[in-house]
Amino acid sequence: MSESIAMPKHEARSTRQVGDVFRDVPLTREHLKCCLALFFVFAIEAWEMMIIVYTAPLIAQDFALDALAVGHLIGAMFIGMLLGSLIWGKLAERIGRKGAVIWSLASYGVISLASAFAPDYITLYVLRLLSGVAAVGMMVVTFAHYQELLPVRQRGALTVYLASGWPIGMLLALGATVWLMPYGWRTVIAV
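Below the sequence we write its predicted structure tokens.
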């Protein structure tokens, strides 16, 4: 029975490389919707990294912090990102890139919102550190996921659009800070 199923040796098998499949895939509306979603994720990442810098004078005034304490607070997110980057790549391999982006975004949102209600410097520092751990999942996974979604021919040009999410996120954070500054740093962080 196995002989009747097996392909004779003289017949050539037609195989395709994975790269060939992605090279021939057309760019669709679904690709563009996914790209737009990941663009916003990237803009949110930039927002998160800059919002604490822009609100630092208000936080320093509220908690009576010196320049060193403010610097530590700003650095807390980057330390968290270092720690988080060791986790998110492995986690993305387990739960998938889309799942990792969603979990990163959701956990970042909860932690960032909690930081708007921090009663003191230490609590805010710990929450900013955890915010970095959570937010870096978006950064670690977004580029890889973005590249995997796109047909080969469009990857270069569309990756430039993804990268433009960074300055847009920074400008949005700056605009929100200036606009909401009269309401205090907690409002800016909560937004």
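The radius of gyration is 22 Å.
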